[in-house]
Amino acid sequence: MNSNNDPNYSPLRDVAQSPEATARYLADVQRVLLDIGKNLETLSIETQVHLRDTHVEGDRWYHARLRAMPVERALGNVLKNLKNLTEGLEKSAYKRRAHDEAVVNTLKERKEKELEKQRRKNPPVLQAAPNPPQQGAQPQNSGYSGPTSIYDLGKRESA
């Protein structure tokens, strides 16, 4: 597609234009970050063991632990940020795909709104229902044309 001789060429431009390519790229980055995260977790544990084992003459039992806490906290923050970063990569891949779906749906919705607008401007002409043929008298006992009040029952019995 694009030539490497083009000064405006960016290899990520093609990736950014396709949601599938974006998802694959972000998954690769996430995989690398997770591998780095495993190494950082191991480094954190080994650092903790070493720093807490480092005692100076005259220390009480908790002094080494207190000296190690800022380093442990810093490595813990790095691990926490790495976890948030990997979750953010996954979320952004999902949002990228949702964006393309929203673009496609927007076009459909606009067409539907335009059709609805046209229907409201030009409502279809409703035709009156045809009158039933009036040949002779209608039957008296059709079930619906009986007395409308209990006083009109005459010799008939109620329920």
In short:
The chain has helices spanning 11-17, 19-53, 63-121. Helix content is 64%, strand content 0%.
Tell me the number of helical segments per DSSP (H or I, 4 or more residues long): 3
Largest sheet: none
Counted beta strands: 0
In the predicted model, the low-confidence regions spanning at least 5 consecutive residues are: none
> Mean pLDDT score, rounded?
85
Termini separation (Å)? 86 Å
Order of helices and strands: HHH
**What is the CA-atom radius of gyration, in angstroms?**
39 Å
Give me the secondary-structure category. mainly alpha
What percentage of residues falls in helices of 4 or more residues? Answer: 55-70%
Which band does the percent of strand residues land in? Answer: under 5%
What's the overall geometry? elongated
Which SSEs are present, and which pair or pack?
Elements: H1 11-17, H2 19-53, H3 63-121
Helix pairs in contact: 1-2, 2-3
Description:
The protein contains three helices and no strands. The protein is mostly helical and 159 residues long. The model has no long low-confidence stretch (mean pLDDT 85). Helices cover 64% and strands 0% of the residues.
What are the main properties of this structure?
single chain, 159 residues, mainly alpha, 3 helices, 64% helix
